[in-house]
Design brief:
single chain, 278 residues, alpha+beta, Chloramphenicol Acetyltransferase, 3-stranded antiparallel β-sheet, acyltransferase, Acylsugar acyltransferase 3-like, CAT-like_dom_sf
Length: 278
């Protein structure tokens, strides 16, 4: 199949199964509502996508390569892992709250009708690799159905597999995703593995109301300068901006002109202005 026509082929991906994996133990009622921090509320409802590719082992038992057998192993271990990572099995009630209702994570098993090498060596590999995710999902702002975790197991013609996962950024960051994948892998290898309970601090550290409450005591910061001698404490409020910087942190911290580069984390020119407009 020509490289240009590979991704557009309607027969390239065949969905074999779609199911919802619930935690193996019900989430206690005391943990049913997970309040998001002020920072989490400011993050768009996007996913953190991860894909892992595994070539076919040179030696394997025939049953171990069966798609349904692999899916069963992963689903069982995922169910156990979700007991500790229970918010991922819920839904977003609103922008401030995740409802940990054990709805489950979505799990798809698909067959990709080409060898893995055609995807990894594709001239547009980044676009080609997206085929191991549910269509368009990693780049959607919200997933219809509200799932906070979506997994896809893909098997290629050559016998290799790919495991992809899309985890809601509102529930956890990149470090949380790495820990989740490591713990899920450990349970898959050994069902006796005890998954450490991550600490979902939510709004206990930086709540949506904590800044507002702090300003009650530091009320002049919520006002304006009337003149050079007077601050008008009119509760106008503190300005809070959320931005995305499209480069790694290391590029800023290791920049030859680090002092200038680090200014990017401030509103433009603000620290050096004599007064802030507004």
């Amino acid at each position: 199949m020509a490289a240009s026509g590979l991704l557009s082929s309607p027969s390239l991906v065949s969905i074999c199964d779609k199911s919802f994996i619930k935690p193996s133990t019900l989430t206690p009622s005391t943990l049913r509502l997970h309040k998001l921090s002020f920072v989490d509320q400011s993050v768009s409802n996007m996913y953190i996508p991860v894909a892992l590719f595994y070539p076919k082992p040179q030696r394997e038992e025939s049953n171990n390569s069966n798609l349904s057998h692999i899916a069963d192993l992963l689903q069982t271990s995922l169910s156990q892992t979700l007991v500790s990572y229970y918010p991922y099995a819920g839904i977003l009630r609103d922008n401030a709250t995740a409802e940990c209702n054990d709805m489950g994570a979505e799990f798809l098993s698909v067959k990709i009708n080409c060898p893995m090498s055609e995807i990894l060596n594709h001239p547009h590999a980044t676009d080609a690799e997206s085929i191991v995710f549910p269509k368009d999902l990693p780049w959607k702002n919200n997933y219809e159905g509200g799932n906070l975790l979506v997994v896809q197991l893909s098997k290629f013609d050559c016998g290799g597999i790919a495991i992809s996962a899309c985890l809601s950024h509102k529930i956890g960051d990149g470090c949380s995703v790495i820990n989740f994948l490591n713990h899920w892998a450990n349970v898959t290898r050994d069902r006796r593995f005890v998954v450490p309970s991550p600490r979902f601090v939510g709004d206990s550290i930086l709540s949506s109301t904590s800044l507002s409450q702090t300003l009650v005591s530091y009320y002049p910061y919520a006002g304006i300068l009337r003149d050079n001698a007077t601050v008008e404490c009119n509760d106008m409020g503190a300005e809070f901006l959320s931005v995305k910087i499209n480069c790694p942190m290391s590029e800023i911290l290791n920049h030859p002109h680090a002092t200038d580069a680090e200014s990017i984390v401030f509103p433009k020119d603000l620290p050096w202005k004599n007064n802030y407009e507004g």
